[in-house]
Amino acid sequence: MRHKNHTRKFGRDHKHRKAMMRNLITSLVTHDRITTTLAKAKELRPLAEKIIRKAKEQGYQGNVFLKQTLFTKKSIERAKTELAPRFQDLAAGFTRVKYLGRRTNDKAKFGYIEFIKNPIEQYEKNEIKQEIEKNGIQSFWAWEKKILKQEKGYFKQQITQLKQKIDLEVESVLQTSAGNNQSEMESFNAQIRADVEKKYAQKRKFLEVSLERVIKEQAMHRTQENHKTYQKLTEGYAFPIDEFRIKQFQSL
């Protein structure tokens, strides 16, 4: 039977859980956005919606509920004077929950919950717009596509140059040994090439692995772009070719 499964327990008893939710909703009303685990954000959402509905009523019962739920006078006043007028034309859907990934320490899913039409959201939109105008790129997709194409061309060019360098070095070794018996040179030709390729094996492996990584990222980019679910990753991400990467390659 599904008794007592209508809400999340979070490993806490009733009093502890109630105090935790009151703390979260007080912070949300005060700051418009808070970052927490995804489960807590989803559990907090119905309470946040109810807070706005009660604040819009401007009645005795609504004031009692706000005082019983919110801890600070500042949050109570803000719910009445700022949040209620902001959502006067909306009947529901005052909050938004966004998934941000997994935390590095315990790998728990986390995200943020926020009230819509908040100043933070408007600031971020303006910042993105200014960045697009400054860099001259229409969207993040166009920027990453350009970077991946740049990396792919760079590594292909380096692999071609390395092959040409190996061929030239093999020819120079053969020319310096031209005075020896021709039959002996033909027998050692394969060995000379193997020695030269072994000399540049580490550098060639680095270039081939890097090219393979870029090709995989391009395939992932196309797949995610088609499904419209791509998010900027913090690890394994395609960055522009910078001086550090070039120095790392030249040191091999």
Give the structure's gist in a few sentences.
This is 50s ribosomal protein l17. The chain is mainly alpha-helical and 252 residues long.
Strand order of the largest sheet: 1-3-2
Report how far apart the termini are: 65 Å
Low-confidence stretches: 227-242
* Portion in beta strands: 5-15%
Helix content: 55-70%
Classify the secondary structure makeup into a structural class.
mainly alpha
Shape: elongated
Main beta sheet: strand number and arrangement? Answer: 3 strands, antiparallel
Total number of distinct structural domains:
2
The tally of beta strands, per DSSP, is 3
Radius of gyration: 31 Å
Please, how many helices?
9
Describe this structure as you would to a colleague:
By secondary structure, this protein is mainly α. The protein has two domains: 14-118, Alpha-Beta Complex (50s Ribosomal Protein L17, Chain: A), CATH 3.90.1030.10; 140-250. The protein is 67% helix and 8% strand. The protein contains nine helices and three strands. Strand 2 (95-102) and strand 3 form a beta hairpin. Helix 2 (38-57) packs antiparallel against helix 3 (60-69) and helix 6 (140-176) packs antiparallel against helix 7. One of its GO terms (molecular function) is structural constituent of ribosome. Keywords: Ribonucleoprotein, Ribosomal protein. This is 50s ribosomal protein l17.
